[in-house]
Amino acid sequence: MASSTIQKMLSPVSLLFLVMLICSHHVSSYSYNEEVDALLNWKARLLDNHSSLFSWTLYPKNVTNSSTHIGTATSPSKCMNNLSGPIPPQIGLLSKLKYLDLSINQFSGGIPPEIGQLTDLEVLHLVQNQLNGSIPQEIGQLTSLHELALYTNQLEGSIPASLGKLSSLVSLYLYGNQLSGPIPPELGNLTNLVEIYSDTNNLTGSIPSTLGNLKRLTVLFLFKNSLSGHIPQEIGNLKSLQQLSLFRNKLSGSIPVSLCGLSGLTLLHLYANNLSDPIPQEIGNLKSLVDLELSENQLNGSIPTSLGNLANLEILHLRDNQLSGYIPQEIGNLQRLVVLEIDTNKLNGSLPEGICQGGSL
User: What are the pLDDT tens digits along the chain (361 aa)?
Assistant: First the structure.
């Protein structure tokens, strides 16, 4: 019943605000009414210029499953509900809440720490608002949470170490904020994580080696921060990784050979850092690679001949380094290559024969 109701709300319209209360057979009428009153009182205080909350009313409790659904959805022609105002601390009274999505509105102020009282919450989306302040430590109490999406706000301060307690978390979206400070090593405890998007912030310090514990991770995006130090060898333990993007940081040292064991990797973006030393010959083991971008570093030595093994490669950026020697003939084997950038190096000789035989370059 609950699942079908959500699907009906999601499929024909663009969902911008949905609150779902799941109450057990044994919840007292006092608790039930207290939660509903808190939600409807919040509705009364919201600025709703487009009557987006018109349908946000109380449905009678069903005798068989005792479920209550309160939500609003917008018509397909609208991209946002334009709801504004703060998220009130009374949201902590909605103790049976499982799904909370306040995305693409104009909610402002901080995320109330009382949100940590919603211990049944599985999905929390506060995307594309005007929220500021820090991420409350109390979010670490939401141990049932599968998805946490706070991206495209004005959040600042550090990523709370308490997020490392969210043992059920699968997806973490923090990008497009003003978060600063180091990445907490406690994130390495989240062994169910599949996706981390923490790019486009002001994060500093090194990449924690504990991220190498996240064996289910498929996406790790930390680009456009101020991260420094070496790329940890332990990233090579992420055997499920498909996309690794660390560009526009201050990373130094060599490209770890351990990365070359990530056989499922399709995207590797390390450009615009301070990486040095030769490109490892073992990079030719990344047979799934489609997009390899290593430009704007201080890489030296010759271009590995093993790049010719990357039969799926479509994009190869090596420009603005200190690479020297001849362009290997094996590059001509890359029949799917669409973009090749190798300028602003110390290369000599001619382009490989057959470099254009694929017809895409």
Answer: 333 333 333 332 233 344 444 333 334 444 556 666 766 777 666 655 555 555 455 554 443 333 333 333 332 222 356 788 899 898 898 888 888 888 999 999 999 999 999 999 999 999 999 999 999 999 999 999 999 999 999 999 999 999 999 999 999 999 999 999 999 999 999 999 999 999 999 999 999 999 999 999 999 999 999 999 999 999 999 999 999 999 999 999 999 999 999 999 999 999 999 999 999 999 999 999 999 999 999 999 999 999 999 999 999 999 999 999 999 999 999 999 999 999 999 999 888 877 766 656 6
| Nearest of 127, 136, 142 to residue 158 by alpha carbon | 136
Strand, coil or helix: what is 157? strand
Cα-based distances in Å from 60 to 18, 36, 137: 17, 11, 36
Q: Cα(139)–Cα(149) distance, rounded to whole angstroms?
A: 12
pTM score of the predicted model: 0.85
Could you give the CA distance from residue 51 to residue 247 in angstroms, rounded to a whole number?
43
Which amino acid type is present at position 70? I
Report the phi/psi class of residue 183: left, alpha or beta, with left for phi > 0 and alpha for psi in -120 to 50: beta
111 to each of 9, 92, 108, 187, how far by Cα in Å? Answer: 26, 11, 9, 21
The structure tokens listed for 304 are: 């590995």
